[in-house]
Design goal:
550 residues; Rossmann fold; alpha/beta; flat; Gyrase A, domain 2; 13% strand; 4 domains
């Protein structure tokens, strides 16, 4: 149990005790929050529980806070000091004894430190990236890929059973246009005067695919139908997407084809089900779904006037398939341009009788590349854009992954290419990885001097404010991970690592770890090793390496 959980448990028992004795009226269940004060003089942890109770019983938060403190059932060795601040906030100082236990826990659990079982084995499917197989992945896809994969890591670390899935949109007008574009490029290589179709795919990658086809088949494909070219282009692009994602450190458990939904009649079946349930109607020659019956702003088309299915129809069948596979939580990490699809999809699932609140939508905002303080021009329409593969080659996998997740997914991100390539403390990736390398170096030097990690080291010697602050930061990792999992916000771990690195660098600059004082050296080596483990575990969750030398 983390320190936060221990304090919450203590507060629940305290409120129950105060209620039993009549000092506080019964206010029912409380969502007790434990926060980190911004200033050190306000303690290690703080809670607003007194404000929550006071609002329900119309009294002073300060008086409620006083009653809580007076009724508090102290847990031996947990809290050393409690104070009221800000008219009712209760601030806690964690005891040294409890912090020392954290160091032992980190050493004993090692790679498992920070795990929890809040997921209790719930099955989670994360559908992320799922870019149309019409071109290479660009930097915007990279951000979504990073978030989805890291979130999957975090959820698995917290006891969820996670499946990573890539949904291949391989039907519809876009795929036909892809085939027409490749056929035009191929015929051009054969010397024919052929123009790209209107809204065709103009990127140089289409020329390269045409050259590959020509090398393999020479001129034997000139009379093939568009479907042949569509399939060749799709497979070529998917192969490139898979390779790029592997180079980015991401592997999927499942690649799900939209075409298979149609080939197995799942789209027809789901539309038939909606018809039988009475949620469809015909108007203007099209088939509509009554999504307004479930809160959508307007009804949506399932089958167009020309008899073609909309993308929405395929999405409904896909999500029904996911529910039927037994997943408890369905996470869709989409681009921000898909915002309008959320309500209609929730409506469709509700119409089919599935719990719409099991759907989670995470929208990824755009990425802007900055070089020399100037934006890098990107135009996907003209086929000119920076691919994810190019970015990885320029700045490296680790830096790309860290930078993509430094901000909330729903906020715009500026990716500074110059900063990303710096080997200095200004580059947060270098700054953090250097901490891990330094801790490894310290432990190696200690071993050379005959000092090894000693489980019986006297941790009471770690009494400096900087040491206690560092230990408390290590102690907060499990709760940080839980918060990231609960709110689907992996960026919390990047902020955590930056702060931890700053605390350690400051400590190391002012205090020698290895000194003539053997007992103190051994105690500090335990602390350094704990920092090493926490940095490594967190970097691993973020999909980054933890170098031993730099």
């Amino acid at each position: 149990m983390s320190i936060n959980e221990e304090i919450i448990s203590m507060l629940k028992k305290t409120v129950l005790s105060a209620t039993t004795t009549g000092r506080i009226p019964d206010v029912g269940l409380l969502d007790i929050q434990i926060d980190y004060p911004k200033r050190q003089e306000y303690g290690n942890l703080s809670t607003n529980i007194a404000f929550l109770i006071a609002k329900k019983i119309s009294t002073s938060p300060y008086l409620v806070a006083q009653i809580i403190i007076e009724s508090m059932e102290k847990i031996e060795g947990l809290i050393s000091r409690v104070e009221i601040a800000g008219g009712g906030f209760i601030n806690f100082w964690v005891s040294k004894e409890r912090l020392y236990k954290v160091l032992k826990e980190i050493e004993e659990t090692n790679e498992s430190y920070g795990t929890s079982n809040i997921g209790q084995g719930e099955k989670v499917l994360i559908d992320f990236v799922s870019a149309n197989p019409t071109g290479p992945l660009h930097v915007g896809h990279g951000r979504g890929a990073d978030y989805g994969d890291i979130l999957a890591n975090i959820l698995a670390f917290c006891g969820y059973k996670v499946t990573r899935e890539y949904y291949i949109n391989d039907v519809g007008t876009q795929m036909r246009t892809l085939g027409e574009s490749l056929k035009a490029r191929y015929l051009q290589l054969l010397g024919q005067d052929v123009q790209l179709p209107e809204n065709g795919y103009k990127g140089e990658y289409m020329v390269e695919i045409a050259r590959t086809l020509h090398r393999q088949e020479r001129d034997t494909c000139r009379n093939e139908e568009v479907g042949f070219f569509t399939n060749f282009a799709k497979e070529s692009i998917l192969e490139d997407i898979r390779k790029t994602l592997i180079d980015f450190g991401i592997q999927y458990d499942s690649w799900f084809s939209e075409k298979e939904l149609y080939d197995s009649n799942q789209v027809d079946e789901v539309i038939d089900s909606l018809k039988k349930l009475g949620f469809t109607y015909e108007s203007e020659g099209a088939l509509w779904l009554k999504t307004t019956a479930f809160g959508d702003e307007k009804d949506r088309v399932l089958i167009r006037q020309n008899g073609e299915y909309t993308y929405f129809a395929g999405d409904i069948a896909y999500h029904k398939n996911k529910y039927d596979r037994g997943y408890d939580v369905l996470i869709n990490a989409w681009g921000t341009d898909h915002h309008g699809y959320i309500k209609r999809l929730e409506a469709a699932m509700s119409a089919l009788g599935y719990p719409a609140n099991n759907l989670v939508f995470l929208l990824c905002q755009l990425v802007s590349l900055i070089r020399d303080n100037q934006p890098v021009s990107m135009s996907t329409r003209a086929g000119e854009f920076v691919t994810l593969s190019e970015l990885i080659k320029e700045v490296g996998q680790d830096v790309a992954r860290f930078f993509f997740v430094m901000r909330k997914m729903n906020s715009h991100l500026e990716f500074d290419l110059n900063l990303a390539k710096q080997s200095s403390k200004e580059n947060p990736v270098y700054y953090i990885q250097y901490v891990h390398a330094r801790t490894c170096s310290i432990l190696s030097r200690a071993k050379e001097k005959g000092l090894s990690l000693n489980q019986t080291a006297d941790l009471n010697l770690l009494k400096l404010d900087e040491e206690l602050a560092l230990i408390f930061k290590l102690a907060s990792l499990p709760q940080e991970i839980i918060n990231c999992a609960r709110f689907y916000e992996p960026h919390g771990l990047t902020a955590y690592l930056i702060e931890l690195a700053g605390i350690f660098h400051n400590y190391y600059q002012h205090h020698r770890v290895i000194s003539a004082n053997k007992e103190l050296s051994q105690a500090r080596l335990v602390l350094v090793n704990a920092v090493r483990i926490v940095i490594r575990n967190t970097l691993t969750l973020l999909g980054l390496t933890a170098p031993q030398r730099m």
